Amino acid sequence: MGGESLQPPRGTRDFYPEDLRRRDWLFAHFRDTARLYAFEEIDAPILEHAELFTRKAGEEIVEQLYHFELHDRHLALRPEMTPSVARMVMARAGGLRLPLRWFTVTQNWRYERMTRGRLREHYQWNMDIWGEPGVAAEAELIGAIFTLLDRTGLPRGAVRIRVNSRALLEESLRRGILARRPEAFAPLCVVIDKIGKIGADAVIDQLADPAGAVGLARAEAADVVAMLDARTLDDAARLGGEGSLALADLRRLFELIDSTGRGGDLVFDASVVRGLAYYTGVVFEAFDARGVLRAVCGGGRYDRLLETLGGRALPAVGFGFGDVVIMELLADHGLLPDLRRTIDEVIFPLGEAQRPAALALTGRLRTAGHSVQTVLGTPRLKKVLTDAAADGARRVWILGPDELTRGVATVRDLQSGEQREEPLVS
Predict the structure, then answer these.
(1) Do 141 and 260 meet the contact criterion of CB atoms below 8 Å apart?
(2) In this structure, are residues 373 and 391 in contact, taking their beta carbons and an 8 Å threshold?
(3) Where are the domains of the chain?
(4) If 410 and its partner were Cys, which of 175, 279, 344, 398 is the partner (CB 3.0–4.6 Å)?
């Protein structure tokens, strides 16, 4: 067996106990934050029919699928959770009490180019609201993101959220550049979402590519990129006009977030469009204020997603928050917790003759809810005490021939250093 086959595939991770403790710590914050906002947890198969993710050709995500054919079925590992949640909503259409407030913590797979904060396998916290058309839903989700960031210990201002509206951009383009080609808007968004990765000139090249899905004149492509420089709501008003419903939604959203005391951490940025074709309205991304790391999380409104799957339209908005970037950010700020293993008791029979009594004692303590480790083999007492301290044990129970004769165990408290005897049978 070659050395490469003994390593995890590139872009995936092994989680040793210390790694898993940190992952569980983060996931607990995900779940606790969702509980604070009265969301319910759901889950779905990691394996789906590939068609669920390939209905919108041209997206990067389609090219990044881990997919295969088995028994005449084309299957894929999920690259994101939103289509699966949409499928679940459709399955109970008409029988659900709206609005839905659902969240997930799932493992996802994308075969993409790796950079710092970007792996091919990652875990993601999703929160979605279904059945609410107003931006109060967006405000609720953005509030949850800020709550999570606060819970991890990140200082205020370390992460801010950029907000835009695809509807606002679409209004402007359909009045002019795309007046005769409204169908080009979705692929246009897929292209301009890359501006932070490939730069403005490369985006113009792709928008003006005669063989591409957008096919603008080069001057039109340059005008589109120029629109993305807008950074204030006043700039946004020039894009959509004062009568714009999309602009009114943005202003209302900023007003709602300002009322929570986090208005200073919300910024308008016309370059945020998100790379998935199903977004229809407000879109947002949380970002490292230092500009070092890629987006911490992102999401937006996708009111027509169910229609693309063959269902009836239902307003929806949600976000995805990955585990990789936030861990990098916390490490940069020195905020990753040092989570030691903890157990309550270590039971140490000095010889095999004492093991039956040790197992009986172990069973009694475990029945009482204690975390108990019984020492295997016959190591020296010094090693047992050293290992127990390293494992975060509170007490070591020592059971030798003399203790067994008297029906007791010697108990050493590892915090205080005190030692006493306890009866084996209570």
Answers:
(1) no
(2) yes
(3) 8-332, 345-423
(4) 398
| Of residues 110, 43, 38, 56, the one with CA closest to residue 280 | 56
Question: Phi, psi (5° rounding) for residue 66?
Answer: -85, 105
Cα dihedral 233, 231, 59, 138, rounded to 10, equals -40
- The pairing of strands 73-77 and 282-288 is unpaired
What is the secondary structure of 366-400 as a DSSP string? Answer: HHTT--EEEPPS---HHHHHHHHHHTT-SEEEEE-
Burial of 351 (0-12, 13-18, 19+ CB in 10 A): exposed
Q: Which two tokens stand for residue 40?
A: 């319910």
Give the N- to C-terminal CA distance of the chain in Å, as an integer: 54
User: Under the phi-then-psi rule, with left for phi > 0, alpha for psi from -120 to 50, and beta for the rest, what region is 17?
Assistant: alpha
Instruction: Report residue 35 CA to chain centroid gap.
Output: 16
Handedness of CA 21, 27, 31, 36 (dihedral sign): positive
pLDDT of 130 above 60: yes
SS (H, E, C) 283-326: EEEEEECCCCCCCCEEEEECCCHHHHCCCCCCCEEEEEEEHHHH
Nearest of 301, 247, 256 to residue 274 by alpha carbon: 301
DSSP 209-256: -TTSSS---HHHHHHHHHHTT--SHHHHHHHH-TT-HHHHHHHHHHHH
Averaged pLDDT for residues 74-100: 94
Residue 143 burial (CB count, 10 A): 17
Please give the structure tokens belonging to residue 349.
């029979």
Whole-number Å distance between alpha carbons of 415 and 389: 9
The model's pLDDT over 344-395, given as tens digits with 9 standing for 90+, comes to 999 999 999 999 999 999 999 999 999 999 999 999 999 999 999 999 999 9
Distance CA(15)–CA(123), nearest Å, equals 12
Q: What torsion do the CA atoms of 275, 272, 42, 57 make, to the nearest 10 degrees?
A: -10
- Domain at 8-332: CATH code: 3.30.930.10
- pTM equals 0.91
CATH number of 345-423: 3.40.50.800
- Residues for the chain: how many in total? 426
Both tokens assigned to 385? 């005490």
Q: Residue 48: pLDDT band by 50, 70, 90 thresholds?
A: very high
